[in-house]
Amino acid sequence: MSDYVIVGGGRAGISAVEGIRELDASSSILMIAAESHLPYDRPPLSKQLWSGKNEVSDIFVHDRAYFQRAGVELVSGERVSEIDPAEKTILTERGRSESYGKLLLATGGTPKRLRIPGAELEDVIYYRTLDDYVELSRDPQGKSILVVGGGFIGAEIAAALSMHEAHVTMIFPGRLMLERIFPEALARSIQDQYERRGIHILSEDIPISFAPRGGWLAVETREGEHLACDSIVVGAGIAPEVGLASSAGLTVENGIEVNELLESSTAGIFAAGDNANFPYAALGKRMRVEHWDNAIAQGRAAGRNMAGAGEPFDYMPYFFSDLFDFGYEAVGDVSSSLETYADWQEENETGVVYYLEDERVRGVMLCNIWGKLDEARALIQAGAHVSERDLHGAVHA
Hints:
By secondary structure, the protein is of the alpha/beta class. The protein folds into three domains: 2-110 and 239-306, FAD/NAD(P)-binding domain (3-Layer(bba) Sandwich), CATH 3.50.50.60; 113-234, FAD/NAD(P)-binding domain (3-Layer(bba) Sandwich); 325-391, FAD/NAD-linked reductase, C-terminal dimerisation domain (Enolase-like, domain 1, 2-Layer Sandwich). Helices cover 23% and strands 32% of the residues. The chain has helices at residues 11-23, 48-51, 64-70, 130-136, 152-163, 184-196, 243-247, 292-306, 373-382, 388-391; strands at 2-7, 29-33, 72-76, 80-84, 89-92, 97-105, 109-111, 124-126, 144-148, 167-172, 200-203, 207-212, 217-221, 226-229, 231-234, 238-240, 256-257, 269-271, 276-280, 285-287, 318-323, 326-332, 339-346, 350-357, 360-367. Strand 12 (207-212) and strand 13 (217-221) form a beta hairpin.
């Protein structure tokens, strides 16, 4: 019997341990992690590890001694296969059965896989884990690498590989990379920068087959392109890992539905991180947020609430990225389907992009501007009707 069982050894899971221990110093905690590594931060896998700002040893959240000090039993390299909410037990693939008092599902997400011939070949990497980084970072210089996907991971990995002198081709179905979050002019500017740096872009296209050809991979695309690659990196997004929750009868809709305390439809079972569909208080709607800062904040909040805090989760998580010389931080709803207003100091380089709905600020992207997230959050939380004149200089650089 464990007082607390945490399924998942990522950032949300380890933050939940910290949250529990803030209120409960002695009850037993069991953490079951699918990966064999200690919990680590994922953003460096597509950012700082490639730039040299971090070494692999820097990305681990805690060393093994932390778990001993915190009184946590960490089981690595093992998966939970079944939850029985009625009996309050979990079962692992290796046959371990454990009773729990409170349970957290911090299972994150699984990379979306291609359904084409050759999609499971050895040299096709569905980029997500530290092991993926280790494999991809082995001397990429001079290699021809196809990056599938024009979103966050695809854009970051393409930039990282290019800086390490790989010959990079990107392919994605949209007209412009990152077009789901960037206004069209900014997306086009970023894409032009990639092409100027030698990255070949195949937009409005998708791969339809991969095949081994004597040490390299042959790629055929829907639009008739034929490519020869040393390896392929797929960064086509993730699907929330909800299999356990669904089979246990929890309410699942674009993730595991949780209330303001991050508790699921079944009392005593919580969810946090990439897999949690939660009420975003400042926006007044449900969202699922696949970012590091959200995993940290939600994990800690879930841990505290498992320990009896009873605190509604009302934090506004942010996310960030670095694409060559263009860096940004963003908070709120930053969908390009919303109306946007860009307040540039230097067009498509430095400034603030506001995302509006019904003349209210719903999201803010700070482009090469740092330390202004609290101002951005305040604008969203205010919920006031605004004009373009109001927004000019609303966040001060």
